[in-house]
Design goal:
The chain is an alpha+beta fold. Helices cover about 50% and strands about 10% of the residues. It has 23 helices and eleven strands. α13 packs across α16 and α17 crosses α20. It is elongated and about 85 Å long.
């Protein structure tokens, strides 16, 4: 494995004090898979005490500890390395964090490995011997693209592992073996995932969405009955086949997020963009008619999104709700060859919430997330959009009139100022001068 020069020095020092060093978990798996973007490296140190480990690491930088209950130590000069002593875990409650941790510096690796979730994550790299130790046949599972749990009785103790399996399905594009899949299905049916925090579910969903094939993760959750209600409802909402030959809304959404995964880095907020693509049609189950029409599903989607608890950031929620609201507008404008003022009004509606760039990308992903797309329609859309951008720009026009102008002009009914400013801006887009706009607003004083 590729190891930092300083890390090798630290490892050699640990060994000189009687310790044994293993690199464990995902970094070994990713090295076997040839992944170049290695991140955190977990180091398990045997046969020395927690205090001895801290004393050794202190020679090489500032030591940050996570408490002796976990015996995890970080070194500021090796920010991507976590050092830990071997441990066993005992389930004490229903929550993801409800475990009693038992540190044992001399724990046999055959026992230490049992706390790992999946065989592909149970590989150990023996630093001194320069070889991989594979006690759970993880290398075979990597070779055959299989996701398999290490120990069924321990796997079911942690409901977060269901979402981790979905994440690895999307990240690695592996198949889940039948026993592990059935364990996940049982955990869902027993409502074990109900005990996961919103924050942890959000984190796992984010990691699924940022893979190259996010649909695989959500398809797995569908198969085991783990989709949240607002996504599950999409699976039984059918669409007009002349518009959506791919079938139900869930199938369409999965095609959209896979297309989106290839352009997300071109957007201002890649993660928020992926969430918007996942949720763009969540209003369709509320409004879809028997013949497959879904009138005003964008507005319904904004309402449904109010009840999606996973996203807590106000800025992110504003971005996503704006994308849901306007994801169809550009395509509709192109189809009907809308006037310039419609484009300028849209720029104002999304101003400060979503860029025109991101709205264009979700419009394209929505269009491409179908069974087939007529090339001439797609080309016509880009011709329309590029013309509008070149002539009218991508930013909302600065307002000619603000609240101070209204006050200076003699308006006193402050309760009407919001409506007055909105109308003033629209009159500005229509070409009215500042003076003419202010005169036209006098009707508000008569209310």
């Amino acid at each position: 494995m590729k190891i930092d020069v300083l890390a090798k020095t630290v490892f050699d020092d640990i060994i000189s004090h009687g310790g044994q060093v293993y690199i464990v978990g995902g970094s070994v798996r990713d090295d076997v898979l040839g992944c170049q973007d290695l991140h955190d490296i977990d180091v398990e140190v045997y046969h020395i005490s927690y205090q001895q480990l801290c004393d050794i690491l202190q020679k090489y930088g500032q030591v940050n500890t996570f408490g002796q209950s976990f015996a995890i130590v970080q070194l500021d000069t090796l920010p991507h390395y976590d050092f830990a002593l071997p441990r066993q875990e005992k389930k004490t409650g229903v929550k993801h964090q409800d475990f009693e941790t038992m540190i044992d510096q001399n724990l046999p690796i055959e026992k230490a490995i049992l706390r790992r979730d999946l065989t592909i994550n149970a590989l150990m790299y023996d630093y001194q011997q320069k070889k991989i130790i594979d006690l759970c046949h993880g290398l075979d599972d990597i070779k055959h693209h299989i996701i398999r749990c290490v120990d069924a009785s321990r796997f079911i103790e942690d409901p977060l592992r269901v979402l981790r399996v979905a994440r690895f399905v999307a990240k690695l594009q592996f198949q889940v073996d039948s026993q592990t899949k059935e364990l996940c299905r049982q955990m869902v049916s027993q409502h074990m995932l109900d005990h996961l925090s919103v924050e942890r579910i959000y984190q796992e969903y984010c990691q699924i969405l940022m893979t190259d094939m996010p649909s695989l993760g959500f398809q797995f959750l569908k198969e085991i009955g783990a989709l949240p209600p607002y996504l599950q409802a999409l699976t039984t909402t059918h669409q007009r086949l002349d518009y959506h030959p791919e079938g139900d809304v869930f199938t369409h959404t999965m095609l959209v997020i896979d297309v989106a995964s290839h352009v997300k880095q071109k957007t201002d907020h890649p993660l928020w963009f992926m969430w918007a693509c996942l949720l763009h049609d969540i209003g369709k189950p509320l409004v879809t008619t028997s013949d497959g029409h879904a009138p005003l599903h964008n507005e319904a989607g904004v309402q449904v999104f109010h009840g999606v608890p996973l996203i807590t950031s106000k800025k992110e929620r504003q971005y996503i709700s704006t994308m849901i609201m306007y994801h169809m507008h550009l395509m509709n404008m192109s189809r009907h060859q809308a006037r310039d003022i419609s484009y300028l009004r849209l720029l104002k509606k999304i101003d400060g919430k979503v860029s025109m760039n991101d709205l264009i990308y979700i419009s394209c992903c929505d269009k491409l997330g179908r069974g087939k797309v007529a090339q001439e329609q797609y080309d016509a859309f880009w011709t329309f959009i590029q013309d509008k951008q070149q002539r009218l720009g991508c930013q909302a026009m600065p307002a000619l009139i603000d609240g101070h102008d209204l006050i200076e002009y003699g308006f006193h009914n402050h309760q009407c100022f919001k409506d007055m400013l909105e109308e003033a801006y629209d009159l500005q887009l229509q070409g009215y001068s500042k003076e003419k706009i202010l005169r036209s607003l006098k009707k508000y004083e008569q209310r």
